[in-house]
Amino acid sequence: MVWHDVAPAEDFEPDVPKVIEVGEERIAVYHLDDGFYAISDICTHQYAILSDGFCEHGKVECPLHQACFDIRTGRALDEPAEIALATYPTRIEGGVVQVSLG
Prior knowledge:
Strand content: 35-45%
Distance between the termini: 6 Å
CATH superfamily: Rieske [2Fe-2S] iron-sulphur domain
CATH topology: Rieske Iron-sulfur Protein
CATH architecture: 3-layer Sandwich
Structural class: mainly beta
Helix content: under 10%
Number of helices: 0
Number of domains: 1
């Protein structure tokens, strides 16, 4: 498993994502009250950048059509989105949040 540095854990604000690009993948990493979570940053309904959307209570809202996704599981919660987002494992190494594409 290859891990990619995102940012120092102390630089994260609750519910404010940090975005990294690894190859063709755009990944948003969120600090929620129970840990760090990484999801695909592209809406599964239609191309939109989810990190531009509103985040609250562990959900992110697509700025294009207001579909919501569970940040912890990637599950689509509202129409028009029906397909879950990809999720990625996270860890903290030396105080730095890292994400792996598997």
